[in-house]
Amino acid sequence: MNMSNLIRKELLQMRWILIVGLIFGLALAVIIVVTFHYMEQVVAEIPPDLMELLARYEVTRELLFIFGDYSDYVWSQWNAKNLYQAGALLSIIMAASQFAGEVSRRTIGFYLSRPVTRREGFAAKVAAGMIMLLLVFGGAMILIWIVSAIIGLSAEWGRLWGAFIISLVWLSAYYLVGCIISILNKEPIAAGVITGVAAIFLSLPGLFTATRDFSLFYQMRAVDFFIYQQPVFTSLIYGLLVSGVLFGIGMKVFYEKDF
Amino acid sequence: MGKGCLSVKSLSKDYGQKKALAGVSLEVKEGEIMGLVGPNGAGKTTLIKLVMGLIKPSSGLVSVFGRDEKELGAEDRRRIGYIADEPFFYDFMTVQQTIEFNQGFYPDWDHEKCAGLMQRFHLPPDEPVKNLSRGMKAQLALILVLAQKPDLLLLDEPLEGLDPMRRLEFLNLVLEDFMEREGRGVLISSHYLEELERLADRVAFLHEGRLLRVAEMEQLKVEEKTIRVVFQKEPPEALLNMPGIKAVQKEGKTGYLLTIEDNFNAIYEACCNYPHFILEIYHRSLEDMFMDYSGRDQ
């Protein structure tokens, strides 16, 4: 009862973030599908000799890969681009507002003096954040599915949903990094900026083949699963483990913090 | 009075080099209202926040209803009511939404009392909380805390910023509620000593994080007095050094102002028995005592 009450409060408090996020996510979903529909026709109209010439260049190869297969296109535009960029932004805003925001608005005393333990208080906030991520991006993913079906574009939806779940789990890990930073800060803007800077450091290992497995943002794109055909559980279990550890750290930091 | 509602033992809180609270031990018994008195920075809010678990102690123990504060579950926490020094609510909620959010935590929520107090205070249910005045927010905080029917009430400067009418109404409601049921305990900190004097059964004096004294209000009223005496000749030193005399101030040649904190009857008798011209007794208010304790180290 207590938890659902707290989660409801969090969702009510973040309703504007949810509304804007949903509009943005749903618009993104439609744009992704419709763009393919038109770009596919453009690529198909390129003469074969020009295509051969263009294939020598990296950018063109990528273009041909993206528009050669609808599943690859959706993955490249969704998991590998928009989902993780918009997801990171949403995570930063939510985490900063949920913890540092509660301190700066001086409502943390009211929140923690309800009959809940610190652990419940933390878990409720994180659960609400996860629900927001699921609603915004799950909603967008469903819309991609529906609009694709309406236009008549078929894709390997099992693989795409697998990639989506991996992306969401790793996005949650980044959101939890934001939560930890937010607990340690009194000002939401400072917390947001630090979480943003942390994103740069967390994506750096992804630039090198030897270290990319350690990059949160590399994992978020579900490359190993979607491109290198690794089993879905490898990335998923790895992601759940990292998220679990971050959740534990966050709970401990929140438990020990003076408010 | 019964067993302890709240007990703190050797409680300390350090912020770096600064000691916000230094080895404080006190108990609030069932059926008791304890006043917490001290100047700003004495450690009153720190003590209450430690009891609420909002901050962690550097050392010492807090137990509520006989259980370590760290082990309190939701069921125990439902029995604790708390009003912060400045009540902050969620600005995005209306008065009614704040009440609904709060009542969700308390299965025994007193709907009748809540509705009655809402009417009495004329609080507009659909008004966003951010539009409420300081006094109205204090009233809303009181509604929330009384409707939850707590067994231990922690009030941190709840009268701050209220006009005299609202202060009186606030205290009367706390008192009425306290009398409704047996076994409740109240810990209240306030700068409004006159009101506290009327309300509290016992009073604890805090200064610079240290607990200087805990005394029964009745005992303070009986024992805490000032005797102004002009002796006919210089009194023996033993009289001026009697236990219970807190301060001796000489006035003229053989005149003395004796500030007494204990053992009043014996001191008074000793003064009466020694030849004197004038002997007067002044009652000392909580405010006088507060001034004494606040200036003790200065």
Structure commentary:
The complex is a heterodimer of chains A (259) and B (298). Chain A is an all-alpha fold and 259 residues long. Chain A has one domain (3-256). In chain A, 81% of the residues lie in helices and 0% in strands. Chain A is elongated and about 70 Å long. The two termini of chain A are 24 Å apart. The mean pLDDT of chain A is 90. Chain B is of the alpha/beta class and 298 residues long. Chain B has two domains: 4-219, Rossmann fold (3-Layer(aba) Sandwich), CATH 3.40.50.300; 224-294, Alpha-Beta Plaits, CATH 3.30.70. Chain B is 34% helix and 31% strand. Chain B contains eleven helices and 14 strands. In chain B, strands 6-7-8-3-9-10 form a six-stranded mixed β-sheet, sandwiched between helices. In chain B, strands 2-1-4-5 form a four-stranded antiparallel β-sheet, with helices on one face. In chain B, a hairpin with a 2-residue loop joins strand 1 (4-15) and strand 2. Chain B is elongated and about 75 Å long. The A-B interface holds A 1-2, 5, 8-9, 12-13, 105-107, 109-110, 112-118, 120, 256, 258-259 and B 49, 52-56, 72-78, 80, 82, 84, 86-93, 97, 101-102, 104-107.
Secondary-structure map:
The complex is a heterodimer of chains A (259) and B (298).
Chain A: H1 2-13, H2 15-44, H3 48-54, H4 58-68, H5 70-104, H6 108-112, H7 118-151, H8 157-183, H9 188-203, H10 216-220, H11 223-226, H12 232-256
Helix pairs in contact in A: 1-7, 2-5, 2-7, 4-5, 5-7, 5-8, 5-9, 7-8, 7-12, 8-9, 8-12
Chain B: E1 4-15, E2 18-29, E3 32-37, H1 44-52, E4 59-64, E5 67-68, H2 74-77, E6 80-83, H3 95-103, H4 111-121, H5 134-147, E7 152-156, H6 164-180, E8 185-189, H7 193-199, E9 202-207, E10 210-216, H8 217-223, E11 225-231, H9 237-240, E12 245-251, E13 255-260, H10 264-273, E14 276-283, H11 286-294
Helix pairs in contact in B: 4-5, 5-6
Question: What attributes characterize this protein structure?
Answer:
heterodimer; A: 259 residues; mainly alpha; 12 helices; 81% helix; B: 298 residues; alpha/beta; Rossmann fold; Alpha-Beta Plaits; 2 domains; 6-stranded mixed sheet; 4-stranded antiparallel sheet; 34% helix; elongated
